[in-house]
Amino acid sequence: MSDTAETAGDIAAGRLKPAELAANFADAHPPLSPHEAVVEANRCYFCYDAPCREACPTGIDIPGFIRRIATGNLRGSALTILEANIFGGSCARVCPTEILCEGACVRLAEEDRPVRIGALQRRATDWLMAQDPRPFTRAAATGRHIAVVGAGPAGLACAHGLARLGHEVTVFEARAKPGGLNEYGIAAYKLTDDFAQREVAWLLSVGGITIEHGRALGRDLDLAALRRGYDAVFLGIGLAGVRALGLAGETLGGVRDAVDFIAELRQTADKGRLPIGRRVVVIGGGNTAIDAATQARRLGAEEATIVYRRGPAEMSATHHEQDWAQTNGVRIRHFAAPHRLLASGGRVAGVEFMRTRLDAAGRAVATGETYTLHADMVLKAVGQVFVPDPVHGDGTLALALDEGRIAVDAGRRTSLPGVYAGGDCIAGVDLTVAAVEDGKIAAASIHRQLLG
Amino acid sequence: MADLSTTFAGIRSPNPFWLASAPPTDKAYNVVRAFEAGWGGVVWKTLGEDPPIVNVSSRYGAVRYNGVRVAGFNNIELITDRPLAVNLREIAEVKRAWPDRAVVVSLMVPCTEASWKAILPPVEDTGCDGIELNFGCPHGMSERNMGAAVGQVPEYVEMVAAWCKQHSRLPVIVKLTPNITNILAPARAAQAGGADAVSLINTVTSITGVDLDLMAPEPVVDGQGTHGGYCGPAVKPIALHMVGDIARDLPGLPISGIGGISTWRDAAEFIALGAGTVQVCTAAMHHGFRIVDDMIDGLSNWMDARGYRTLADFHGAAVRNYVHWGDLNLNFRTLARIDQDLCIRCGLCHIACEDTSHQAIAAQRIDGRRRYEVIDAECVGCNLCAHVCPVDGCITMAPQPTTQPKLVWAQHPNNPLRVAAAAE
Ligand SMILES: Cc1cc2nc3c(=O)[nH]c(=O)nc-3n(C[C@H](O)[C@H](O)[C@H](O)COP(=O)(O)OP(=O)(O)OC[C@H]3O[C@@H](n4cnc5c(N)ncnc54)[C@H](O)[C@@H]3O)c2cc1C
Ligand SMILES: Cc1cc2nc3c(=O)[nH]c(=O)nc-3n(C[C@H](O)[C@H](O)[C@H](O)COP(=O)(O)O)c2cc1C
Ligand code: SF4
Ligand code: SF4
Ligand code: SF4
């Protein structure tokens, strides 16, 4: 601990040259060239009852869209994708395909190299976005008006589905920009060139959707009033809360929530102005931890260490994501839980960790042995939680919860008639593609309700 | 190391790989490079009478299949566009420099005895090993009553072959056009005319594609196109069939096999079906002359593995098994077998059989896992599933033991003529 005092709090902006930063935050996986795409598309066997399709949460007809790339029918390909998943463009970039479609590709069984479904999906959707500024049409107006709360993937997928069916939609969004975590959360090198905003703008070209920004449920609006004022309500408000470590000193300078760090990074065009610690410790085992640590390294942190209380197999970050972090020079330490935050001059100086082991039930238990890591910056990524207050309003509404999130049935109906929900605010995997599926299903359910 | 040397219609070459008469054999420069690369022989690009013909610009079309380029190739070129004297001088020089290689000269002149009689002596003077009569070119020349226009009329084939035998001492190879219903007719005519051998196939009349922007067949020449001659891997099956017919029905007539030969394996198939040498054009145009390396050592390694010392050891070995449909055993049964360990569960065998064949592959889900299973009682042994399965060796066709003797159509109970035959 001897040098802690003198070097603690080494947080500085501009650790890397502008060119290095530009390269670090450019597209992590550049698009396939037209030729590469055709070659890759021809690797697809056009499976019958394709396992990849079943593994896609939005059920895209993957062999169908890939064959259309092979034949040069890019419009047909993109529309096949978008019909099932209106966020096909961002999903192509952000889906953990290794555990979804590509993880089920039969080519994997054959030769360990799946068809690059995500990259092909990007090829087709990028093509259509570039070719056609307004590819969607709407059914005749129904005169129905639906309120959607939250302009993330779930809310906008629902809004788009409803608008295409001829309904009118107003989206209430607390933040200044639409897109939800596509805009504020996803790693910068996955969605470059302002893709989140360009995609939303493109989707809104369908018409019939108005987004009101700076309008938060629970603050500016309440659910009871929305139910009265609209034919149906969809809640896609994501996860507003973050878990705390439960240690003294969480307010020390240099200690931050990883999601806030990432949101700031996403909103700062000039990455050279972002302060970053020389030694960064990230606590957690999910994709947020991976993204925070990797982006810290790419901003110029000398060391970025993820510390997780269980083993590699228990991390919710996929194997692929763990590899990716390690390729980026992130060190991952397993079986240790934060025990004490060390301070120096009101700033964090390090973290004392308690070594852990798994008990018979697979829980991490303390071993009593500790070690210390120096840290100029500590990023907390131990989980996000659903905050029910905005939907509960004055407490007179009985919106049922399930596993701490909004309870829904298969049609994404909540316990309140006319109120639907989807995305991260309901139980299930927290992925963009799953949120889109929820929004899509809810739009169909709402449509049935209104016309039924 | 197997002995690949050949003597074909009296023409010797160190290996059976010849370049077909086409752009690769257009002039001394190409041919010397080919010989340096190891080709056993060439058939020089077809010579004609002066003044030389004129070619168009924009000459080739090609078929791409699932990202594979030049699966089929088509051209609208004509015979050599260089003066006769230049070609003859170069042929003489090359032959002198490469005495161990076969140098055959391809010829096409108008269908009159005088024309043939005039061109043969200067060709013979080059010291070349033989001549090949180009009766095959399906475009451009046939409109001038040459090429396929001759090859499609057996009487002309016989007549011209006879003139050449009469006015030259060189071995005469007649190159046949596939653009005819029965290849045996011109082959017999060539034999009747005294030809020493036949070579086949020349190109198949074709349009490779239509440019949908220009609304014109490809290759497009100033907004318009014309039919051309098709060759390359796509035509190999057509060529094999025609070679096999001649080998089976005209035994003893030497055949130089041509059409889609790209690898040693293709060559081995042609030789097994009766070809004495093989000729290559498209594969060389696609990849250059260096492909002959693998052709030579691939063939020789395969022969060594099989214990064949010379080409004669397997030449024509498949001909006796090339029979007419009516000679096939109707009591033979084969069934599809799926190796479940190799199966990657793509479902292609199922959907192919289900939609288009005999509904003999069941699609099952066992604990959520896909499983494809052959229903023996429904399987007719058509091979379709084995062809569509993307995994090598995953679906095999297993011949079934039978106690019944061979039964051919002539004896089959369903054959109405069988009764008549029995009554006779
Ligand atoms: C750091 C990070 C990285 C991730 N990386 C990936 C990845 O690579 N791939 C992947 O598939 N998934 C990833 N995810 C998960 C993915 O982003 C989410 O699952 C997805 O965005 C959920 O969509 P949603 O619409 O439900 O919620 P969100 O995207 O969170 O959108 C909710 C929207 O509602 C608004 N809102 C919230 N409360 C209110 C309110 N009271 N009133 C009005 N508006 C409100 C929010 O401002 C926001 O715009 C990541 C998540 C994080 C945090
Ligand atoms: C561009 C081109 C030009 C050809 N010119 C001739 C020719 O002049 N004389 C001839 O007998 N055959 C000619 N052919 C036919 C080839 O010799 C050969 O018979 C045919 O291409 C089939 O062989 P392949 O499949 O290996 O290409 C030509 C073929 C091509 C592609
Ligand atoms: S949306 Fe995601 S999971 Fe579905 S096919 Fe596209 S990349 Fe794969
Ligand atoms: S599983 Fe793979 S090969 Fe089969 S359809 Fe899907 S992408 Fe194509
Ligand atoms: S085609 Fe082959 S790999 Fe595919 S399901 Fe059938 S047996 Fe299995």
Brief account:
Chain A is an alpha/beta fold and 452 residues long.
- The CATH C-level name of the largest domain in chain B is Alpha Beta
- Could you report the average pLDDT of chain B, rounded to the nearest whole number? 95
How does the helix and strand content of chain B classify structurally?
alpha/beta
Secondary structure: number of strands of chain B: 20
CATH topology of the largest domain in chain A: FAD/NAD(P)-binding domain
The top level CATH class name of the largest domain in chain A? Alpha Beta
Rg of chain B, Å, rounded: 24 Å
Could you say what the CATH topology of the largest domain in chain B is called? TIM Barrel
Mean pLDDT of chain A: 95
Number of strands of chain A: 19
Q: Which range best describes the helical content of chain B: under 10%, 10-25%, 25-40%, 40-55%, 55-70% or over 70%?
A: 25-40%
Approximate strand percentage of chain A = 15-25%
* Bound small molecules, deduplicated: flavin-adenine dinucleotide, flavin mononucleotide, iron/sulfur cluster
